[in-house]
Amino acid sequence: MLLGTKSTGSFSSWDGRYKLELKNYEEYCDEGEVWFGKAAESRMVKYLASLKLPFTARIVDLGCGNGSLLRHLRQRGFLSLTGVDYCRDAITLAKSVTVQEEKDLEAALPPIQFQVVDLLSVEGSLGTFAVVLDKGTWDAMSLSDEYERRLASYRSLLCRILDKNGLFIICSCNFVRQVLVLLIQIIFLSRDELCEQFGVSPLRFKLEIEPENSFSFGGKKGVTSTTVVFEKIS
């Protein structure tokens, strides 16, 4: 997915998209688009599997869409999965596809918790998680006319819901690693006293998950998306 316009960051844009995808699923069993492609999703899943986390580790996907990423994690054995999205039709689609997968496999699989949540005005608590995933949500917010406020609220949410030493894994098609590190860490300004003042722990860059494939143009190599891992420092 290439996010190229301000309208892509609006609720009406995403609401309309998921209304259409839900309709297509109900009529044709088409579960919809895998944002950034299956290769980007596979990169995140393989990395998580390589960490040898407990299968009970709590994982949340912020802006889960049709839930494809979480279903692939469930196939890897993860048991405590949550997906949130502010589009009600996206959550309806995610639930429908997930239930159908269980029927097709004829297996009693652990449930995935899907919730309608506005990440910028979370009422109550989502709880805390060992891993927070983002595949496109940060990109969409960055295209809003209110992007500075939205991204600041989003960073604050990350600090609240990540466990100590928890991981934030973000996949972006709009930003390279250096820019993601700057945007996500800027709230802390590398000043420990600021973290203490607001009662948060800093997110620090851990690594970039290298893609398996790249493309060449004009004699230079490039990738269609960047996946970066941050760790919440205690």
Topology (elements, then pairings):
Elements: H1 11-28, H2 37-50, E1 58-62, H3 68-75, E2 80-85, H4 88-105, E3 112-116, E4 129-135, H5 137-142, H6 147-161, E5 162-172, H7 177-185, H8 192-198, E6 203-209, E7 215-217, E8 220-222, E9 226-232
Parallel strand pairs: 1-2, 1-4, 2-3, 4-5
Antiparallel strand pairs: 5-9, 6-9, 7-8
Account of the 3D structure:
The protein has 234 residues and is an alpha/beta fold. It has a single domain (7-232), classed as Rossmann fold. Helix content is 41%, strand content 23%. It contains eight helices and nine strands. A seven-stranded mixed beta sheet has the order 3-2-1-4-5-9-6, sandwiched between helices. Strands 7-8 form a two-stranded antiparallel sheet. Helix 1 (11-28) packs parallel to helix 4 (88-105) and helix 2 (37-50) packs across helix 3 (68-75). The longest helix has 18 residues, at 11-28. The chain is globular, with a radius of gyration of 17 Å. The two termini are 35 Å apart.
